[in-house]
Amino acid sequence: MSLGYAEKLSYIEDVGKVGMTEYFDPPHVLQEKVERLAMLLKKSKHLVVFTGAGISTSCGIPDFRGPKGIWTLQREGKALPEASLPFHRAMPSLTHMALVELERAGILKFVISQNVDGLHLRSGIPREKLAELHGNSFMETCSSCGIEYLRDFEVETIGLKETSRRCSDNKCGARLKDTVLDWEDALPKKEMNLAEKHCRMADVVLCLGTSLQITPACNLPLKSLRGGGKIVIVNLQKTPKDKKASLVIHGLVDKVILGAMDVLNMQIPPFVRIDLFQIILTEALSIDKKYVNWTLRVASVHGQKAPLPFIKSVEVSFLDSQDYKAAILDKEPFQLKRRTLQTKSFEMVLKFNFSDGCGCSSTEINIPIDFQVPADCFRLDRDAIFQKLRETAIQDSCCGQNAVIEKKTILSPNSEVTVYAIITNIVRYNKTSKSTEADSLSNGDVKRRIDRENGTETSRKRSKGRKRKSKF
Ligand SMILES: [Zn+2]
Ligand SMILES: [Zn+2]
């Protein structure tokens, strides 16, 4: 059974206590508050950010409490909002990426999230600087050895139950469990302890898009007060902790954060998503040894039965081999069986059609095949390859760039396994050559920025905006 994410998340908050009226600070007040926030961030020695559903609303993930939030609609018996993208393709918001930049700049020390969408990890916040208090829909863990597995598909259960996969550590092999809490589950101790420790150390706890109503998580920011720390709350609704805060900003989180980044003269980095898949070529010689019966399979790296949600279909064709018939693999498992002459080498072209994402529709990968040459096995430096792929994707402003990161052979059945890394999404937040899903979902500021890039603002500001750190 697969749960919709609205159901998955429904454990998070109690519908009864909803205070859903939204407040917006008038523009001049907002501007002054944004500048105060920027100064607090600049001077901060140990910034902790505490996030809730409100920072993911521009990612195509509906909010819970606003007038069009899940709870409100549910209570009024109305239909729940359709997500503009499937959950597994949700993209980080401008705010998620701004946090990544603040972390890289050494300002942000720790992120505490109540969201289960996994977008902080996806966006690039290091695992050790993140506490996901309610779990992560894409994460499973081994309860025996503790290894965490971040998947590209939604894990099928919630409530810390066993999933259908096992730990891939050879010495372990224990059953994996999901990480998303159900109503009765206590908050994870390890994450809570870390979160608490960082809140005690914090001189600023910035609460973004959370109504601060779920205990005990909502009391974490208060831990900073004893050591002289300050609380800043950015949220459209009032919260029960407003009285304890040094600064309360009623505005859209993306808008406030973009404003603060502007004041700090910091850029919001593009989001680049890399996914992995493997091509498995299994071969068996015919009895007369003249032919090879082979099977090509495009599969997930997460195990034989795992889904491959970012690929919609694979079109197979053959270069310079008109006698080999083309094929369309349009459902999982993506698999093609053929019988060809053992002595004849050929080249296959695989056209990958992507499922919903940033707008890039497909990419092609060429695969030369020669059954007479044994495969060479290797394992390359992943991080170096990822880095290079990111750089090219940012330069090209489109997806599909790919590279082999590993090749291995299996003896029985006799197979060659090639692992690929592929860019499946790129989103820019402050400069764009083409419209992306995230742009159209964000509030007006993204457009304002594009106009600025196009030259409607002064050159002083433009050159300021161009200053980039070469982080990628
Ligand atoms: Zn294990
Ligand atoms: Zn794309």
Automatic annotation (TrEMBL):
Principal EC category: transferase
Keywords annotated in UniProt: Metal-binding, NAD, Transferase, Zinc
Pfam families named among the record's database cross-references: SIR2
Compositionally biased residues, Basic and acidic residues: 445-460
Domain of life assignment: Eukaryota
Entry-linked InterPro entries: DHS-like_NAD/FAD-binding_dom, NAD-dep_sirtuin_deacylases, Sirtuin, Ssirtuin_cat_dom, YEAST_sf
PROSITE patterns, alphabetized: SIRTUIN (PS50305)
Basic residues bias locations: 461-472
E.C. no: 2.3.1.286
Region (Disordered): 435-472
Ranges where the Deacetylase sirtuin-type domain occurs: 27-267
Catalytic residues (UniProt): 134 (proton acceptor)
SUPFAM superfamilies for this protein: DHS-like NAD/FAD-binding domain (SSF52467)
Biological process according to GO: negative regulation of transcription by RNA polymerase II
Binding-site residues, Zn(2+): 142, 145, 167, 172
One GO MF term: NAD+ binding
Single GO cellular component term: nucleus
Family to which this protein belongs: Belongs to the sirtuin family. Class IV subfamily.
Record protein name field: protein acetyllysine N-acetyltransferase
Organism: Ziziphus jujuba
Gene name linked to the record: LOC107433598
